[in-house]
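hey so i finally got around to running both of the ones u sent me last week. sorry it took forever, my laptop kept dying halfway thru and i had to restart like 3 times lol. anyway pasting them below in the order u listed, first the sequence line then the structure token line for each. didnt double check formatting much so if smth looks off just lmk and ill redo it

first one:
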Amino acid sequence: MGRCPECGKWDTLAEESSSSRFAPHGGKGASSLELQTVAMDAIEIGNEPRIFSGIKEFDRVLGGGIVAGSLILIGGDPGIGKSTLMLQALYGISQNGRKVLYVSGEESVKQIKLRSERLNTIASNILVASEIDLDAIMSGSETIKPDVMVIDSIQTMFNAELTSAPGSVSQVRESTMRLMIFAKKTGVPVFLVGHVTKDGAIAGPRIMEHMVDTVLYFEGDRNHVFRILRAVKNRFGSTNEIGVFEMKEEGLQEVLNPSAVFLSERSKSAPGSVVTASMEGTRPILVELQGLASNTNFGTPRRTVLGLDQNRVALLVAVMEKKIGMNLLGHDIFMNVAGGVKIYEPSVDMGIIAAIASSYLDVSIPEGTVVMGEVGLTGEVRAISHVEARVGEIKKMGFTRCIIPENNLKRMTRIEGIEVIGIKTVAEAMEILF
């Protein structure tokens, strides 16, 4: 059958051989083993410290380090730097006297050595292997007993018990399951490098993301030097943390102060440029929002958005037309987050409106001003979270004025050295800014 009757896609059906290892309850060959249970209060947990990679941004995204026995899946576009990040992380772990194993199904050991020389990540504690046979990898890892293991990539692994080719749904699912059992039984953290589809999702069955403990996405445009490591699932930490890296010739270098980097090339007097503060986990980051409103040459105006939710921008444009009276129906609107960052937090709503209004009026935002706030459909400005941490970061970066929701201003403590203005509506913000 060429087309799947469930999803309607072509060439997605995979043949699997039936297995007699599992029998239904009470049926022929049913297991007579009893389920072993343990009382919750009788479980003893040792104070096992997390494993640190030496890369602070990487450890922060993982929740403070690598947990023993965890299974971590990292995906990203081809050439974004997944293998580079793994080699650098393994090198940092090996510097603490730990033995690490790097298994590549895509490169030979000589190619790995050439890349390691460029990255300056050569160490005697890093063991490398070029292998796709999962049985050989499992047997070898039990003999070597590494402290951390990396599989690059999970789509190249091959299980001889299955007849399908590497990368198929059944092969990826079975390989992930066996590696998960290995990690839980031995306590060895296992990293799985995963390919992504053209839609940006990790290739393979969705159940693979359910099986692992942590799912990391390595984002960024290959035309930009910055890379964003984001956790979308983490059983041992926050899913809001991001790590910022800069791609250089000698590998990835962590960016400890992303706000300064993202604002380094900003033009302070250009109409359409606004600075806003976004919370990424526990850390506030200042980013530049750029808006451009120009007369349309077609019957339907264009709405092109990069780094923001396009539906959210369309909603805010409708609020501006209705509540402020700006005639944006005959204008093409373009929005961009400088630096290639993606922001989906509603607290940047006021920044989006200010950027579009600044370009439409051709009036620049006053220098030293930062705009924040969530906007509702009636034009009201709603309170946002972690406002004191945001204002503290704004002051540290040298800004002198901050526009925030009125309800946040009532609850926050006064911060010396910066003027904080509270607003209730979008119209009130326009009067202050322009």
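and the second one:
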Amino acid sequence: MTPSAPLPVDPWTAIARGMAVHAVTPRPAVGLTPSTVIHAQDKLAVRYYAPRAPAPGAKLPRALVLVPSLINRAYILDLEPGRSLCAALAEAGHPVYLVDWGVPGPEDADEGVGYVVDELLPRAIARADRHAVRQGALPGPVVLGYCMGGVVTAVTLARHPELRVAGFIALNTPVSYAHAGRFRDLVAPEHLDLDRDLPKLLDGDGLVPVNVMKPAFNLLDPVGSVTKYRAVEAAAADKDKLARVLARERWLEENVPMPGRFAAEFIRATYQQDQLLAGTWVLDGRPVDLRAITAPTLVVACAGDFICPPAAALPLAQALGSERVDTQVLACGHIGVVVGSEGPRTFYPLVDRWAREVGGAG
């Protein structure tokens, strides 16, 4: 007698099981690739990932500086073995530098966008450049900015042409905010009056606290809890799969607060007034002109991204002063591009190949 196939699990039973596993299972360790801090300023640290030794007589390929979002933990780019952009690029031979923004405290509440783009990030890029040259790399790294990290990188490069940069990779970087999807809907001026509403959301230290930011992020994907718990339940029988799911969950759970002044300045200029592409963003008395960026640039968008849809990211390609601008749309989502299967299969090799093309070494 042929055994009958197992009956499908009722979806609500699967969700309940997933909730139970999610609640009691310890989160795995993250950020495991060995690194050394080579620069620190305020809460920011630059982490260096040493490259695999080149073959005898070969030159090091161009260094890469990775700039993640300021409102999430930097270890998304070094989440776990096999899903680490830092580790993959170092293994490919690149000196790799990760900008870890750290966790803001009360003393950071009055730090605005200008402090980030004119003080913190330029120094971090320059310090990584000097360190990479001492390791044998050519001067001028390729800088990769991810999401909000791509925005502050673009603004930094536009305002600091003195920085030696061989190339710029903008990953899921929103620049056309009229097309910026669900987050734009959430903070649009008709829904959020920054002068009236933002002060009510700040904690006593002048920060936008995690307990305000986390529900806002959850609203971007209203059915995310259902899919999350079903994914946990589906992976529960396989230790490695469960660890992979919960590593991503750990990152999603570990939000960081945002300085109130930065939040007000950034949201107003970008999501509410769409000043970046228009060239009307005047920051600390100086305009932000994306045409001042002349380095070769790769603009990467993801077809399944509802945080930064391709329509929000791709217009950057026409806004720069660069002679070479390449674009790529990948078949994945905002987070999956760096920690999903598409990362090691497609995105990591794309970054390695493009950095070598524009870098002129390796």
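quick thing i noticed on the 2nd:
The first helix runs from residue 11 to 24.
anyway thats it, ttyl
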